[in-house]
Amino acid sequence: MLSGFPASAGTDPDMQIRAYLVAIEGIPLEAVWQAAKLFISGKVRDHNRAFAPSSASFAEQCRNQQAAIEAESRPRMEAEPETPQPKVPAYKMQLLRDAANGSRSAKRELAKMFPDNPIIARAARHEEALR
Hints:
Residues 67-90 are annotated as: Disordered. The protein is mostly helical. It folds into 2 domains: 13-73, no CATH class; 90-129, no CATH class. It is built from 6 helices and no strands. Helix 1 (13-23) crosses helix 3, helix 2 (29-40) crosses helix 3 and helix 4 packs across helix 5 (104-113). The protein is rod-shaped, with a radius of gyration of 35 Å.
């Protein structure tokens, strides 16, 4: 990788390689290879392409590649299929709309349909009391 950056020609390659090896210790070879390809091909953002990357920058890119490889290898979670819900008949929807718009007869009809619903029953009793 060092030979791909001409401005780094004066750097001691043995020392640079040792620094890279220390920095990437424990990182899988596939991630190291992918990071090296990105640097050599000039695809690493904010990197001066005239110089070889520092060992810290190279290790950071290796860790990024390792995370990407791990993310790709994780099993995908399948979305739970939606359970079909019964459709509300149109006349019930119309009653709800009418009741929301203040229709007393619609509120009474809903109270008859849903006697266990405390909100509807209370609204119907309130309407009866107002009459």
